[in-house]
Amino acid sequence: MADIRTLRDRVPETEKITINLGYVDLGRIDLLVQEGFYSNRSDFIRTAIRGQLDSHRDVVSKSLERHTMELGLRDYNRAELEALRDKGEVLHVKVVGLARFAPDVTPDLVRATIGSISVLGALQASPDIKAALADRIS
Fold it and tell me: Which SUPFAM superfamilies match (predicted)?
């Protein structure tokens, strides 16, 4: 069995949300799907959301600057956090998108290096890391 190797679990690139729609709106979406404008309901909803986000691009950019937030994917790894700890620095994390902590990051390291954390989107971390950050999440 030397030919067998373990593959890393794939981290999802999307977050599932649930919305409630009225029957008329849902019927109109289904009609557009039936007519071939969209491949399915999710395709319509994603397209509509992207359109709204594009129409507010300037507002989002100005808000990111004002709040000094990072946009997109932000990974935190053990080496980076250890370097900060060794310099005596503390991070105040502000992310719009996805913030991830590597599996080898320890709760003690997080408590020593993360002063506060605000994530608009999703935080991916082990349950131990989330527990260590519980009093610092805003």
Answer: Ribbon-helix-helix
- What phi, psi does 110 have (nearest 5°)? -65, -45
For residue 1, being part of any structural domain is answered with no
Tokens at 131, concatenated: 């527990």
Contacts of 85 (CB under 8 A, 6+ apart): 109, 112, 113
Facing residues of 95 across strands? 70, 119
Residues 101, 115, single domain; the answer is: yes
Concatenate the DSSP letters of all residues of 61-122 into one string: HHHHHHHT-EEEEEEE-HHHHHHHHHHT--EEEEEEEEEEE-TT--HHHHHHHEEEEEEEEE
pTM: 0.64
